[in-house]
Design goal:
Strands 1-2-3-4-5 form a five-stranded mixed beta sheet. A hairpin with a 5-residue loop joins strand 1 and strand 2. Helix 1 runs parallel beside helix 2. It has a single domain, classed as STAS domain (Transcription Regulator spoIIAA, 2-Layer Sandwich). The chain contains three helices and five strands. By secondary structure, it is of the alpha/beta class. The chain is 36% helix and 34% strand.
Length: 103
């Protein structure tokens, strides 16, 4: 599965992992992954370390997540973006909008 979701026991931390191609199919799974979380979530971590390529619409879904997270006062952090993911984030200037963390 190109998208998996891990929720902490208290449901305040959600980690969504995307691997392979971040395309229309992965976008649908990604959208479901964050829309099915509760409004009590305080922190989203999006792990893009396994992304081999991504379409431009995937950038839009990250913006949508960020906007939705702001509505519930939650934070969004991109974790370890792969080289292709990092390049796309930078080309779209999303590295200025989203927190990016390399661990």
């Amino acid at each position: 599965m190109p998208v998996s979701k891990h929720i902490s026991k208290d449901a305040k931390h959600v980690r969504i992992v995307v691997s392979g191609v971040f395309d229309e199919t992965a976008m649908g799974a990604f959208r479901r992954a964050f829309s099915e979380t509760s409004n009590s979530c305080e922190r989203y971590e999006i792990d893009l370390s396994g992304v081999t390529s991504m379409i431009s619409a995937a950038l839009g879904i990250l913006i949508l997540l960020n906007e939705n997270a702001r509505l519930i006062n939650a934070s969004v952090t991109i974790i370890n973006p792969s080289t292709p993911a990092k390049r796309n984030l930078e080309l779209a200037f999303l590295h200025r909008m989203l927190d990016i963390c390399f661990v």
